[in-house]
Amino acid sequence: MTLFSTGVGLLIAVVLGTAAVAKIREPGPFVTAVGTLVPRAVRKQVAWLVIGAELLAAVTSLVPATLAFGLALAIVLLAAFAVVALRSALAPAPLPCACFGSVKASLGWPHVVRNVILTGLAAAGLVTLLAGDQGSAWSQPALMILVAAIAVLLAAVAISVDHLIALFAS
User: Fold this and answer.
1) Which residue has the higher pLDDT, 33 or 118?
2) String of b and e for 6-42 (b: at least 16 CB within 10 Å)?
3) CA geometry: angle at 35 spanning 31 and 38, to 5°?
4) Which residues have a Cβ under 8 Å from the Cβ of 149 and sit 6 or more positions away?
């Protein structure tokens, strides 16, 4: 397992894990947002399915034996999120962003970019994992600490997109 794919797995785990936990703590805004995309009768089930998939992708992206599955699931989720954000960015009335729990903004171009970048990173991590050395990246502790720090920093930026936009817009 390469350092890159392991780092991407950590990044995905932090981003999707944070999103899932925030939605579990306060599911209402996400259920409401999902209700704008699917029939009202199934909005709760679809919302909880997405939350469960986020949590599953996060956990499996942390475990070396299931990293490939976690990255593949993350690719599907993040690509779907990018499509929803694109639909919202092009719509006359943007959808609410309940990406990390409570609604702070409308889904727009920054969310498209964030999700496309994360999808690309997950895909590159999966390709690198499948094509790379199957040895343990964790056998290099000093490098793994650096990789983990970079992954957490990038995850913090991805999670804080709405706050960063508000900061630079003012």
Assistant:
1) 118
2) bbbbbbbbbbbbbbbebbeeebebbbebbbeeeeeee
3) 125
4) none
Alpha-carbon distance values, 68 to 55, 148, 150, 159 (Å) = 15, 18, 20, 23
Q: How far is CA 101 from the centre of its chain?
A: 13
136 in the Ramachandran plot: left (φ > 0), alpha (ψ -120 to 50) or beta? beta
Q: How far apart are CA 74 and CA 130, in angstroms?
A: 16
Q: Longest C-alpha distance within the chain, in Å?
A: 51
State the Cα–Cα distance between residues 161 and 113, nearest whole angstrom.
10
pLDDT in tens, 134-147: 666 667 788 889 99
pLDDT digits (tens, 9 = 90+) for 27-75: 988 898 898 889 999 999 999 999 999 999 999 999 999 999 999 999 9
| pTM of the complete model | 0.90
